[in-house]
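Subject: protein-tyrosine-phosphatase

B.,
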Amino acid sequence: GLARFAVSSIPINQQTQVKLSDGMPVPVNTLTFDGKPVALAGSYPKNTPDALEAHMKMLLEKECSCLVVLTSEDQMQAKQLPPYFRGSYTFGEVHTNSQKVSSASQGEAIDQYNMQLSCGEKRYTIPVLHVKNWPDHQPLPSTDQLEYLADRVKNSNQNGAPGRSSSDKHLPMIHCLGGVGRTGTMAAALVLKDNPHSNLEQVRADFRDSRNNRMLEDASQFVQLKAMQAQLLMTTAS
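Prediction pasted inline below.
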């Protein structure tokens, strides 16, 4: 059933799957570490009205703190993925209107938008971060950029700090293409920002339980997380 919503055919854990208020499951999981929710993780929504409506309803109903799109511009064009977070659209009952806020920081690599969502009486504005220079299966160009990005995600959380939510509400929603490598790396970076002493092997194991056994499978991305952790521990020690 979920195949109609996600671009990727990666199997996911149905126990942690996010459901809309009408009970419909979406191809998104709540990633947890040490029993605490960290982020919502999914693959790029499929370019169909159904899939995009479900994705937007989820952002609205769960009042996600921000939307983090890690799919590069090249990959979006190559795979003809819908740039749904830019401009104005109507997907079923949901209307979107997105305004670009900034694109200057970190070597032009991150665009920020504010996306207004409305569905019936419900309205919600979500900050969007689009990271344009993160290649699939590879780390970001620098460890500093990963840390900077984690800071941006935490700071755009107008609902309070991530890791404080006890449910699947008010969390950052993160997706790349398949929702395992870059997405897992980004979520793990948020964990490290909350507590640099976190055991990354345990983070990986918990994320695999939360979504699927391919989370954080790319060695080079894991190496970058280790480097970020070392940097954070050095800073906290000094």
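The beta strands are 17-19, 25-33, 36-42, 67-69, 87-91, 94-102, 110-119, 122-131, 173-175.

T.
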